[in-house]
Write a structure and sequence with these properties.
Number of helices: 15
Keywords: FAD, Flavoprotein, Oxidoreductase
Strand order of the largest sheet: 15-12-14-13-17-18-16
Pfam families: BBE, FAD_binding_4
Number of strands: 18
Strand content: 15-25%
Structural class: alpha+beta
Protein name: FAD-binding PCMH-type domain-containing protein
Organism: Tetrapyrgos nigripes
Number of domains: 3
Family: Belongs to the oxygen-dependent FAD-linked oxidoreductase family.
CATH topology of the largest domain: Vanillyl-alcohol Oxidase, Chain A, domain 3
């Protein structure tokens, strides 16, 4: 999955009449709009995302690729006024592990050509297109000597990531993704363009996802950059228990806001067992980061590849966006404890050979723990988000062991079950990494009723029923 997209052509009127005749009025309204259907040579590429392990019938009606907010408005008005109504989904990066940026028989609104970045004159904010991907956002900010808070994978859509929380390596310095959102332009369920959202809608967008409209632009905070100190410090898996406990003691003594803190334990990229500290240091004092790096390297037998670089350079190389047959889940944990470390390391040592099965610790500290009354995102106290991921490491590994995918998936669910049974976890989970069958209500706590009321007010007919998370119709 590249971080940029090609200007794919739409199908002809004759092909559209054969594949999806109900879309002919849309083509009449927007002759320049690329409508891609199943007969197109690029349909598979256009509909595909990060997750490739989806049911065979998980095939949309068509993919449309608007280039402006006005076109999105026309698409939504067409879909909602059609008889029968044409279901819609919205995609940017399409990294959802359950494929929710597409749906069987739906019209996929592919936002990736709405990807501009305009920096404000005061250099404190920027307006970004609703389809901008993480690496492209960082790259466009670099000539301005700025950066933004993003995730660690280059092809993740910024909007989808930030609207549901947005954990990332700069969270300690600048906060979560939801904390970056200053304003939004959306197309509401009636196709109306809302250039400036009211405070209640913004509260819902910041943590409630795209349940209230198609987000065609966000006004976000930007920060001094683009240089960070970034890379990995890797230890042998047999040292993981001792190193992680020393790491816990180090962070209890000193956890600088400028330091990301994230760590991965299990079978790393390529299926190699180990413990990796994801080292990202973001501040004007990179020398302080180098001193802190030396403390981490002394925790065990370390191999370090950390240097000063642009953040975009780091995420492009560190987490390549290769589509995979994969399973993921997440749990919240209040602290890095000895009990948690023992459970995770014991399971890491049982990861199936030939897999990439690991637990990734996202630390919420510093700015990311400060209350934000303008957001419905609920978990603001210091905590860890444990991302549990499993996939075959390569096609060759899966060819060698045809049962490898099932073994990797079983490993994910087994570790999740053990953590839930341990009574170490908190309520809810991170909705970007949580099975849709888990009720969203648990992740919003006391904010649930207000969020549900807002959904019923803004989108009473549940036009955006394919948005993540499911609000109307959930338990």
């Amino acid at each position: 999955m590249a971080t940029t997209t090609k200007d794919w052509p739409g199908v002809s009127r004759e092909v559209l009449a054969k594949d999806a005749p109900q879309l002919l009025p849309l083509q009449d309204s927007l002759p320049s709009l690329a409508i891609i259907t199943s007969s197109s040579d690029v349909f598979t590429a256009a509909k595909s995302g990060f997750q490739v392990d989806l049911p065979p019938d998980h095939v949309p009606l068509a993919v449309v690729r608007p280039k402006a907010t006005g076109e999105v408005s026309t698409i939504v008005r067409f879909a909602t006024s059609s008889t029968p109504r044409v279901p819609i989904t919205v995609r940017s990066g399409s990294h959802d592990f359950w494929g929710r940026s597409s749906a069987k028989g739906a019209l996929v609104i592919d936002m990736r050509q709405i990807n501009s970045v305009t920096v404000a004159s005061d250099r404190k904010s920027a307006t970004v297109g609703g389809g901008i991907l993480a690496a492209d956002l960082l790259t466009q900010l670099e000539p301005h000597n700025l950066l933004a808070t993003t995730g660690v994978c280059p092809s993740v859509g910024f909007c989808g990531w930030s609207l549901l929380g947005g954990y990332g390596p700069l969270a300690g310095s600048y906060g979560l993704g939801v904390d970056q959102i200053l304003d939004a332009t959306i197309v509401d369920p009636n196709g109306k363009i809302i250039d400036k959202c009211d405070s209640e809608t913004l509260w819902g967008l910041r943590g409630g996802g795209a349940n209230f409209g198609v987000v065609t632009a966000l006004n976000i905070k930007v920060h001094p950059g683009p240089k960070v100190l970034a890379g990995f410090v890797v230890f042998p898996l047999e040292e993981a228990l001792e190193v992680l406990n020393k790491y816990r003691e180090l962070l209890e003594e000193d956890f600088p806001d400028a330091f990301s803190g994230n760590a991965t334990v299990g079978n790393l990229t390529g299926g190699f067992p180990g413990l990796s500290i994801v080292f990202v240091w973001s501040s004007s004092d990179l020398n302080a980061g180098k001193i802190f790096l030396e403390k981490i390297k002394k925790l065990g037998t370390a191999k370090s590849a950390v240097k000063e670089k642009n953040l975009s350079e780091f995420i492009k190389v560190a987490f390549p966006p290769t589509p995979k047959k994969s399973m993921v889940t997440s749990v919240y944990i209040p602290e890095l404890s000895e009990g948690l470390i023992r459970i995770v390391v014991d399971n890491a040592k049982r990861a199936p050979a030939g897999s990439e099965c690991f637990a990734h610790f996202h630390f919420s500290h510093g700015e990311s723990t400060k209350p934000n009354a303008g957001s419905c995102f609920n978990v603001r106290e210091p905590h860890l988000l444990i991302e549990i991921f499993g996939t075959p490491a390569s096609k060759a590994a899966e060819d060698k062991d045809p049962g490898l995918k099932d073994k990797a998936y079983h490993w994910v669910k087994s570790l999740e079950s053990e953590l839930l049974d341990s009574q170490l976890t908190m309520d809810g989970g991170y909705l970007n990494l949580l099975d849709p069958s888990v009720p969203a209500k648990d992740s919003y706590g006391g904010k649930w009723n207000r969020l549900l009321s807002l959904k019923k007010k803004v989108d009473p007919e549940n036009i955006f029923s394919n948005a993540c998370p499911l609000l109307l119709g959930s338990n």
